[in-house]
Write a structure and sequence with these properties.
The protein is mostly helical. It has eleven helices and no strands. It starts with a helix and ends with a helix. InterPro entries: Lips.
Amino acid sequence: MTKVGDYQMSFQVQTFFSSFVVKCFKPFSAQIDTVGVYSKLYLETSNYHKDLAVQVQNREKKLNTGINPMTQRKIKLQERQLKLTILHAAKMLQDFYPKKIFPRKALFSEEDFWEDEQLKFRDWRGLACKKLKDVFSEGFLIPLEGTDTHFQLEVQHLHLGRYVEMVKTGDFHDDLDIVTEVHSTSSDVAVKRPSADLDIFNPSRVIHATAAFATRRPRSWPWKQDRKAATFDKLQIPLPIQHPASIAISIYNREHDQNPINYDDYYCQRIIRATKEQPVSSIVSLEEIITD
């Protein structure tokens, strides 16, 4: 609505000029010429429109959260946090709109603004809900339930309460103002920083050093390709990666949260244990795993 009001305000001078010419010279069958003063006014108005479009585009880039739309639809709050967020947003809008928005809207009144928003007069909570839905998604106003899978982001603020309490309860004396010089021998303290061999976690590291080229020896059929058994180096410290079966169940539960697989189920644990212990080539059917 702000964009529409700004565009209409930029057209205001051009509209007044056109209406003035029509009222004064229409009885004489005169019309506005596209050259002269009107052309300058039209060019100036178009330049204002271009500048306004650039300003609006830059403002939208600054206000963009940069969050993926898929992630925006997943952002939700618990019921208490959602109510507090709506109250704080309504308070911010109540302080901002009467000072910054309504005084600059010369083409319509505050009543027209609330009517266009389809809200009651000065319904700041309703306006806050609409803004939150525009920023995040329609489902943002649905609070999280206890059965929903979620994680929480917490900000650790600087807390100086215990230091203030220590100063209040401290027993200070005048003798603390006396400065006493203490002479001690200076010495260099050398402390080595902890370090770890990063090659331990490198899957492509060659553990046993070998020659770059094998020693050529006489053999039968030298024109045939020499087949060598493929060996893979194992890490000294295995990476903490779950089994593919557990990963597949986690992905399935995340995409089918309405009908998930119970990971703690007895048969589910037997199937996972069988896939870990039994090679893939020896598995004939799922019934053999369950019956075993």
